[in-house]
Design a protein that fits this description.
about 450 residues, alpha/beta, three-stranded antiparallel beta sheet
């Protein structure tokens, strides 16, 4: 299987199963449509009126050599069959706060409480969650914990206690916990910033871009804008060069289909690690993206690609999360087949200690997996999520993007199609648009490195 696409006159061919990416000329571009169906004599006869037969033969020889090397029309390495082996829990998303000090319009958490009561995780539940992770991770040395909400800084004393507790417990078992904290940055004062930096905690900082864009979607409970305070706190945090890293993460909606301006706005404020992602919303929401927006979004992503390439050529460091793919191999095959591992390798924990496949399933009782206090899991749900890989998802085996999106988000699939095995159509199309841009960008960056 191959995928052909053009970007600003550059013709590119992705060999899906090997991951090899080729830049080709017009002749080879055309030959690839027929070379598996016609023999050399037939191909020369078909194209001889437009191309020199000697050039046709030379191009065919190159194509055949790439096929022989497994870099064109390569076979599926698993032959369309995959049986996941036993897995261990590697990461937890700790909902230390089902409450928030903003009222973001697109919030999947219902602006904090995930459809339930506003509450904070107790230290006792948090400790049991970490004990659960360390036990269920079995022989794995490195595990991950994301402090999440709502807004986790509303429960910051418990976060601090859990960081210390987890490190001590992990060290005693020869393990190590990597911590991340996702925050809207409203409460990110100087003391908190220094704690996060000193304790090697990765931070995900929410900012939607330009002030009018951010304030429209991320107001305070009183309806005022949060941009100025958030931007000031994020700039202060980033200036500390947090050792564990950071991402400034935004969401774009139908209100800002020109979201490249928001990415550039972040770059102009000195941010180097950026993620701006499409909103997931109910179709009836006025800010929800629509299928008819795809052409506009395709051009916007391509415009962003050109701008990022220009900035990088000028010597600026910019890492846009959705364009950050590895042309040399990337994640292991199992990871590319199954994606995030929600429901069997990754789970979310509510303030009450209930376990769910991920943060976007929290509040759906049919997806409750268990509780951190006893470590018992609903194996039926675990098996269902383990089996939600690209060989079982509708349409994925035939899709060129399958090894990069891994079948897409389970939660989005369920929200729109009531099945984790039927991918969200709009999400699929956006993923393919982003991937073409990412492939083009990374190919150009590779060329720059080789110069």
């Amino acid at each position: 299987m191959i995928h052909k696409f053009e970007f600003d006159g550059t013709k590119m061919v992705l060999d899906v199963h090997s991951g090899a990416l080729h830049e080709v000329d017009q002749l080879t571009w055309e030959l690839l449509d027929d070379c598996c169906e016609l023999n050399k004599t037939e191909l020369i006869d078909k194209y001889k009126d437009r191309y020199n037969p000697a050039d046709i033969e030379e191009a065919l020889n190159e194509v055949n050599q790439l096929i022989k090397e497994g870099m064109l029309f390569s076979e599926d390495p698993l032959g369309g069959k995959y049986e996941p082996q036993g897995s261990v829990v590697k990461a937890l998303c700790l909902h230390v706060a089902h409450d928030c000090n903003l009222r973001c319009r697109y919030c999947f958490a219902g602006q904090g409480p995930f459809g339930g009561d506003r509450s904070l995780m107790s230290l006792d539940i948090g400790k049991k969650a970490l004990d659960f992770l360390l036990a269920k991770s079995e022989g794995r040395k490195h595990v991950e914990v994301d402090f999440f909400g709502g807004e986790p800084l509303l429960n910051f004393p418990v976060v601090q206690e859990l960081v210390s507790y987890g490190r001590e417990k992990a060290a005693a078992l020869g393990k190590e916990i990597k911590y991340t904290l996702t925050t809207n940055a409203v409460l990110l004062d100087e003391k908190t910033q220094q704690y996060l930096a000193d304790n090697n905690i990765n931070v995900v900082l929410s900012l939607d871009g330009r002030q009018n864009v951010h304030d429209r979607m991320r107001p305070t409970p009183g309806g005022k804008g949060s941009y100025q305070r958030v931007l000031e706190n994020i700039k202060s945090m980033v200036s500390k060069n947090p050792p564990a890293g950071y991402y400034v993460r935004g969401t774009f909606t139908r209100y800002n289909l020109d979201f490249s301006k928001d990415v550039l706005h972040m770059i102009n404020h000195g941010f180097e690690e950026i993620s701006v992602e499409p909103v997931i919303a109910e179709p009836g929401d006025d800010f929800a993206l629509r299928v008819e927006d795809l052409d506009t979004l395709r051009e916007e992503y391509r415009h962003l690609t050109r701008e990022l390439l220009k900035h990088i050529k000028e010597g600026k460091k910019v890492n846009f999360f959705h364009f950050n793919i590895d042309l040399t191999g990337g994640p292991c095959l199992a990871k590319r087949l199954s994606g995030c591992g929600a429901g069997h390798q990754y789970m979310a924990v509510t303030p009450d200690g209930d376990l769910y496949p991920c943060h976007q399933f929290v509040g759906r009782p049919e997806f409750k997996i268990g509780h951190v206090s006893d470590g018992k899991l609903n194996e039926e749900i675990v098996v269902k999520f383990k089996a939600a890989h690209i060989y079982n998802k509708e349409g994925c085996q035939q899709c060129w993007a399958k090894y990069y999106c891994s079948g897409g988000c389970h939660a989005n699939a369920y929200s729109f199609n009531k099945s984790i095995l039927i991918p969200h159509r709009l999400g699929c199309e956006l993923a393919k648009i982003r991937l073409e841009c990412a492939l083009y960008l990374q190919a150009n960056l590779q060329q720059l490195q080789n110069q």
